[in-house]
């Protein structure tokens, strides 16, 4: 009987503890759900305002009094969600019924009715309408398919106001609606793991979103769990380089936003533990805890840490979550281990979903901007005008200080700068839109240089895989971690120790793209050492954007005129008896030039 009572008391204690943990689990998601809902609502309001402004600007450009944007309400119903100077909101149309809007939605092609009285598809909305134009807002889908997000329709009171000659320009104008409509359509306010990205250097970055979540979690623990003064740091583990760094923090470890922490540290040990492991300790009890003197000076008393694994699983964590407690009034007030582990799992899910949505949004934004730029090009859609646009977009998406795009074929001994911006390399003249050969002794360009290979030449010989180098000493390990299917000529006899980084003062992210059997592109993005490090999410985004540009044939269109330009210029140089600077061998161009 005594043993039974002891078991009953233990079961009751376990049940009460479980109920307390369950209550904590409910409280944290409820708080985050409210924050998530308000964030999604702000995103929707911002996107709706952007759509209204675009619609008003378009109606003003074409000088019409009425305009509508129809969006899918159900698989068979289109609804007039936005209107310009019209009360016909909430107008609904069946996709399979007769009408210009339904026809454009199904065909994904713009349609012009010069005279609505004679048009077989026209269905009257307003008695005053005499001319109409409509185009679909389409975004890239799987493969070469495209998905319709809406149909924009403008109506005029004058016959012949819209003509077939305006169709192409109107289709381009309508693509400006793609990104805001995609963000409104794709973000579900009921899914707390789905957070919307937004345009701008900070809006595309995962770190900004993770920081806002950590701020709310720390505030919850401080106010409702009475855990005192707290700070949270999300660490990223780079297993290739055997280092960690802070993705985001709200009160401690600021120096590790740019500096690396060795894997043999306390945080590295946490990242190497199993899923669900939580450790609560003090800095003095951990021999591998770095900066103990700083911790004592700042009053750091307790640490709660847990690894962060991807939701899909995996044998290694992608990082860790560290909670730091300062000036604890009640020592027993520590964050519940189960709550910390649950929040770490939540962060992993949010990061994965955010980056999936961000990558899609970036491709849609790039597609829209490239289409607009191609139409507005002063060279009448000349492909060369698109390179600076792409370069600037890559800088925006990846928060880079500079971007350079190089091109070469196997018949040449150097990569040629076709466009560049941002941090300037003193060893290369970067001329917008010109081919410039490398200077002697440059690490950047040539493809072959006495058995020593640069980062760019490595990417040239191994296209399709993004490469990150956040410090000069990381280059060799980064190359060794890539797949084995690397061309032997990449290493000049296979001696990998001869590989040289292209700069000792920058962070580097690059990728090679193979256009055909001869021509290849190399993209290089750089950040200063004072900027955050590139991570695996940046690599995936760059690979996604490069593959998307290849699929949409952007690379081919942008470089086709340059492929024809070099032979022509060389022929002209031979006829004139002189060689241009860009056609000279690398060894003949001196550093003093």
CATH architect. name of the largest domain: 2-Layer Sandwich
Cross-sheet strand order for the largest sheet = 3-2-1-6-5-4
Task: Return the CATH class of the largest domain.
Answer: Alpha Beta
Distance between the termini: 97 Å
Please estimate the helix content: 25-40%
Summarize model confidence as the mean pLDDT.
76
Rg, nearest Å: 29 Å
CATH topology of the largest domain: Beta-Lactamase
Shape: globular
Q: Which stretches of 5+ consecutive residues score pLDDT under 50?
A: 17-25, 425-452, 484-504, 568-574, 576-593
Question: Which strand-content bin applies to the residues?
Answer: 15-25%
- The tally of structural domains comes to 3
Structural class: alpha+beta
What is the CATH H-level superfamily of the largest domain? GAF domain
- Please report the total strand number as a whole number: 17
Specify the biggest β-sheet: 6 strands, antiparallel
- Encode the helix/strand succession as letters: HEEEHEEEHHHEEEHEHEEHHEEHEHEEHH
Number of discrete helical segments? 13
């Amino acid at each position: 009987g005594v043993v039974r009572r002891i078991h009953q008391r233990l079961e009751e204690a376990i049940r009460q503890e479980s109920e307390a943990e369950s209550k904590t689990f409910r409280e944290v998601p409820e708080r985050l759900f409210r924050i998530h809902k308000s964030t999604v609502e702000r995103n929707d309001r911002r996107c709706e305002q952007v759509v209204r402004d675009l619609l008003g600007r378009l109606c003003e450009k074409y000088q019409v009094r009425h305009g509508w944007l129809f969006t899918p309400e159900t698989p068979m119903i289109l609804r007039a969600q936005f209107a310009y100077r019209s009360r016909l909101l909430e107008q609904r149309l069946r996709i399979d019924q007769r009408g210009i809007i339904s026809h454009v939605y199904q065909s994904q092609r713009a349609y012009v009715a010069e005279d609505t009285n004679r048009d077989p598809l026209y269905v009257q909305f307003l008695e005053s309408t005499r001319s109409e134009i409509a185009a679909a807002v389409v975004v890239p889908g799987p493969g070469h398919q495209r998905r319709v997000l809406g149909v924009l329709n403008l109506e005029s009171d004058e016959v012949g106001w819209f003509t077939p000659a305006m169709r192409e320009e109107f289709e381009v104008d309508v693509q400006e609606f793609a990104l805001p409509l995609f963000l409104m359509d794709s973000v579900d306010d009921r899914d707390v793991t789905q957070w919307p990205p937004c345009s701008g250097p900070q809006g595309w970055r995962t770190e900004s979103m993770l920081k806002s979540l950590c701020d709310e979690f720390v505030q919850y623990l401080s106010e409702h769990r009475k855990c005192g003064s707290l700070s949270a740091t999300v660490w990223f583990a780079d297993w290739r380089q055997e280092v960690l760094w802070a993705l985001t923090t709200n009160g401690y470890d600021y120096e590790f936003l740019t500096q690396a922490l060795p894997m043999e540290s306390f945080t590295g040990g946490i990242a190497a533990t199993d899923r669900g492991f939580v450790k609560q300790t003090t800095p003095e009890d951990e021999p591998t805890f770095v900066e103990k003197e700083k911790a004592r000076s700042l009053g750091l008393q307790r640490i709660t840490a847990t690894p962060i694994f991807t939701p899909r699983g995996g044998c290694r964590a992608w990082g860790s979550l560290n909670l730091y407690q300062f000036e604890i009034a009640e020592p027993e007030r520590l964050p519940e281990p189960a709550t910390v582990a649950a929040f770490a799992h939540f962060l992993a899910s949010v990061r994965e979903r955010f980056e999936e949505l961000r990558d899609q949004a970036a491709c849609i934004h790039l597609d829209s901007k490239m289409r607009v730029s191609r139409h507005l090009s002063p060279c009448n859609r000349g492909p060369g005008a698109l390179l600076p646009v792409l370069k600037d977009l890559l800088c925006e998406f990846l928060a880079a200080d500079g971007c350079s795009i190089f091109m070469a074929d196997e018949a040449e001994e150097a990569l040629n700068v076709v466009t560049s911006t941002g941090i300037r390399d003193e060893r290369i003249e970067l001329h917008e839109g010109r081919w410039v050969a490398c200077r002697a002794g440059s690490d950047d360009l040539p493809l072959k240089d006495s058995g020593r290979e640069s980062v760019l030449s490595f990417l040239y010989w191994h296209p399709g895989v993004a490469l990150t180098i956040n410090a000069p000493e990381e280059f060799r390990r980064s190359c060794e971690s890539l797949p084995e299917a690397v061309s032997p000529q990449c290493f000049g006899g296979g001696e990998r120790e001869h590989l040289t980084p292209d700069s000792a003062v920058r962070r580097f992210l690059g990728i090679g793209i193979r256009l055909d059997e001869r021509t290849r592109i190399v993209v290089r993005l750089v950040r200063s050492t004072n900027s955050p490090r590139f991570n695996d999410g940046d690599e995936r985004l760059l690979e996604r954007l490069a593959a998307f540009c290849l699929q949409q044939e952007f690379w081919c269109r942008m470089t086709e005129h340059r492929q024809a330009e070099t032979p022509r210029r060389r022929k002209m140089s031979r006829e004139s008896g002189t060689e241009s600077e860009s056609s000279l061998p690398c060894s003949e161009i001196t550093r003093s030039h």
